[in-house]
Design brief:
By secondary structure, the protein is of the alpha/beta class. Helices cover 52% and strands 11% of the residues. It has a five-stranded parallel sheet with strand order 2-1-3-4-5, sandwiched between helices. α5 links the parallel β4 and β5. The relative contact order is 0.13.
């Protein structure tokens, strides 16, 4: 992740939590899954000093991550994509199906990795490369816990552009845009181009709350869980083309 992408991710998370003053909330329970002990300890040491987080466990492979998630019921699993026994994509798919309240933040050594897109499609709420700063990790865990997609829009677009060019990619999901209203279709298209909720409201001359209602409807009709999956579906369906608008 370059400096500009890092700023985008942090800015997006700041926007999500701006104005969040009020009674303190319970600590976010975090499970860390990575096959490298040093990485696991490093991630834990970043989160543990912050009272907003409670690192409840560590797993060395995807199968252990799923088992511990069932046992410990974390709010967020920080999941390495490539692990032995059961990889992070398969583990994410199982968690999305078996523990939908448990949200996955995927990690990868490479920011341009088709496994990242596979993890997002499997149900991960966000993605970060492993060379992130401590501040970016903290912000991303907060955003994923809130149910938002922790992926900088430009980075997500580059990921998908690379992915859709790759040969032998999976076929698009059996979803249709036929049930979307014209306004919902436009919201979906602009979302896929990287606009956030405030930018969507400005572009369409509607309120942010109306934008959120449209997005919720789009998610339901497309049978996707979040913004990242909706953007992927937009490219795979042909609504937005690589290099186009």
């Amino acid at each position: 992740m370059n400096a500009r992408d890092a700023r985008d991710t942090v800015n997006a998370t700041d926007a999500t939590y701006a104005g969040g003053a009020g009674a303190p909330e319970p600590a976010i329970r975090v499970l860390i899954a990575d096959d490298q002990p040093l990485v696991r300890r490093g991630l834990a040491l970043i989160l543990t000093p912050d009272p907003a987080f409670d690192v409840v466990g560590e797993a060395g492979d995807g199968a252990q991550a799923v088992a511990l998630a069932h046992q410990l019921r974390p709010d967020v699993v920080v999941m390495d994509i490539r692990m032995p026994v059961l990889d992070g994509v398969a583990a994410t798919e199982r968690l999305a199906r078996e523990l939908p309240a448990c949200r996955v933040l995927a990690l990868s050594t490479f920011d341009m990795d088709e496994y990242v897109v596979a993890a997002l499609r499997a149900g991960a709420y966000g993605f970060l490369p492993k060379d992130i700063s401590p501040e970016e990790l903290v912000a991303a865990v907060r955003v994923v816990h809130a149910g938002e997609a922790a992926v900088a829009p430009r980075l997500l677009s580059r990921l998908i552009s690379t992915y859709v060019r790759a040969p032998h990619r999976p076929q698009p999901p059996a979803t249709t845009s036929g049930d979307l209203t014209p306004r919902e279709l436009e919201v979906w298209r602009l979302m896929a181009l990287g606009l956030d909720n405030a930018e969507l409201a400005t572009a369409l001359d509607i309120s942010v709350s109306t934008v959120k209602n449209h997005i919720t409807s789009v998610f339901g009709k497309l049978n996707v869980r979040d913004r990242a999956q909706a953007v992927i579906a937009a490219y795979e369906s042909g609504l937005v083309e690589v290099g186009g608008g």
